[in-house]
């Protein structure tokens, strides 16, 4: 299954599953559903509910 990219609706930060968020302890290759629910956007601090899947077509 290809990796997804999700964008923060509040600030535009992109979470890329292939890259993860190593600075926050999220290893490369971590699928969005496996990111802890208490993870916050590293740019603006909002929670996961603000993220939407980027259409890569």
Automatic annotation (TrEMBL):
InterPro entries referenced in this protein's UniProt entry, alphabetically: Rubredoxin (IPR024922), Rubredoxin-like_dom (IPR024934), Rubredoxin_dom (IPR024935), Rubredoxin_ET (IPR050526), Rubredoxin_Fe_BS (IPR018527)
Co-factor note (free text): Binds 1 Fe(3+) ion per subunit.
Keyword annotations: Electron transport, Iron, Metal-binding, Transport
Biological processes per GO annotation: alkane catabolic process
Binding site for Fe cation: 8, 11, 41, 44
Domain of life: Bacteria
MF-aspect GO terms: electron transfer activity; iron ion binding
CDD domains registered for this protein in UniProt: rubredoxin
Span of domain Rubredoxin-like: 3-54
Cofactor: Fe(3+)
Record Pfam families: Rubredoxin
Pathway named in the protein's UniProt entry: Hydrocarbon metabolism; alkane degradation
Family: Belongs to the rubredoxin family.
PANTHER family listed in its UniProt record: RUBREDOXIN, RUBREDOXIN-1-RELATED
Function (record text): Involved in the hydrocarbon hydroxylating system, which transfers electrons from NADH to rubredoxin reductase and then through rubredoxin to alkane 1 monooxygenase.
Protein name per Swiss-Prot or TrEMBL: Rubredoxin
Naturally occurring in which organism (per UniProt): Methylomagnum ishizawai
């Amino acid at each position: 299954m290809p990796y997804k990219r999700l964008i923060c609706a509040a600030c535009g930060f992109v979470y890329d599953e292939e890259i993860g968020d190593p600075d926050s302890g999220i290893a490369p290759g971590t699928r969005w559903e496996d990111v802890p629910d208490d993870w916050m956007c590293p740019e603006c601090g909002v929670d996961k509910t603000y993220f939407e899947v980027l259409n890569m077509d």
